[in-house]
Amino acid sequence: MKWGIIGTGNMGTILAEAWLESGMIDQEDLYITNRTMEKAYAIQKHYPNIHVCENAASIAEKTDLVFICVKPLDIHPLLIKLEPTLSKQQCLVSITSPYAVEDLEKLVPCQVARLVPSITNRALSGVALLTFGDSVEPVMKGYLTQSCKVFSRPVEIKDSITRVSSDIVSCGPAFFSYLIQRFIQAACEETEITEEEATIMMTEMMIGFGKLIEDGHYSLRTLQEKVCVKGGVTGEGIAVLEREVGNMFNLLFHRTHHKYAKDKREIREQEMG
């Protein structure tokens, strides 16, 4: 099985690194290309036996699985160009959430799936979101699902929860990284702790937190209850969070879904010419 990536930006690169580092595919079976070719050749410096192609058509000609890792508004013109090259034996996989698989199936003659990865997949961890079109054969569906297991926990989702699932899985690391940075900033502003000290402590705390959950020692709720002793300092901090967080995350989901709707509207307008 030959694998191809069109677009080696952040997510395309993460997929390539996850596959290669996990041993899921051999370097010789991976073909990549990018609008800025220097980015593709930069990946080849780390994995010298992968193939760098000069254009997207070459990827479609040489591979069985074609991963589309470009911006939403770049997909339609790209697939119009690739359509004559693709066959029903191939599988086209988009990592772009605004494009529904049924819409992609109207543009190409091959099998179609969607994979929304996460930066956590680079650590061979986290979730990968999968949605399959009606055209995907059982063997291909099983192959794609199994291939994700080596670097993630694959979760098949319906299209109606794509945005919120992506907010959690794909955007979540950025959201919580921001909150952690603000936590550190406040600690430095309110006490004599240095940023370096606070960062070390916070980083190690987060690693330990993840391991407690991963190993099944606690659920999110029982971990909070275990630390939050009645009448203690943690309880005072929780009281502040309960009062101040309010509907912050509700507003976050409103904002991401608004942008999602805008992206889908722009895609429809583009397709209508």
From TrEMBL:
<dbReference type="InterPro" id="IPR029036">
    <property type="entry name" value="P5CR_dimer"/>
</dbReference>
<dbReference type="GO" id="GO:0004735">
    <property type="term" value="F:pyrroline-5-carboxylate reductase activity"/>
</dbReference>
<protein>
    <submittedName>
        <fullName>Competence protein ComER</fullName>
    </submittedName>
</protein>
<dbReference type="InterPro" id="IPR008927">
    <property type="entry name" value="6-PGluconate_DH-like_C_sf"/>
</dbReference>
<dbReference type="InterPro" id="IPR036291">
    <property type="entry name" value="NAD(P)-bd_dom_sf"/>
</dbReference>
<dbReference type="Pfam" id="PF14748">
    <property type="entry name" value="P5CR_dimer"/>
</dbReference>
<keyword id="KW-0521">NADP</keyword>
<dbReference type="InterPro" id="IPR028939">
    <property type="entry name" value="P5C_Rdtase_cat_N"/>
</dbReference>
<dbReference type="InterPro" id="IPR053790">
    <property type="entry name" value="P5CR-like_CS"/>
</dbReference>
<dbReference type="Pfam" id="PF03807">
    <property type="entry name" value="F420_oxidored"/>
</dbReference>
<comment type="similarity">
    <text>Belongs to the pyrroline-5-carboxylate reductase family.</text>
</comment>
<dbReference type="GO" id="GO:0055129">
    <property type="term" value="P:L-proline biosynthetic process"/>
</dbReference>
<feature type="domain" description="Pyrroline-5-carboxylate reductase dimerisation">
    <location>
        <begin position="164"/>
        <end position="259"/>
    </location>
</feature>
<dbReference type="InterPro" id="IPR000304">
    <property type="entry name" value="Pyrroline-COOH_reductase"/>
</dbReference>
<feature type="binding site">
    <location>
        <begin position="6"/>
        <end position="11"/>
    </location>
    <ligand>
        <name>NADP(+)</name>
    </ligand>
</feature>
<feature type="domain" description="Pyrroline-5-carboxylate reductase catalytic N-terminal">
    <location>
        <begin position="3"/>
        <end position="97"/>
    </location>
</feature>
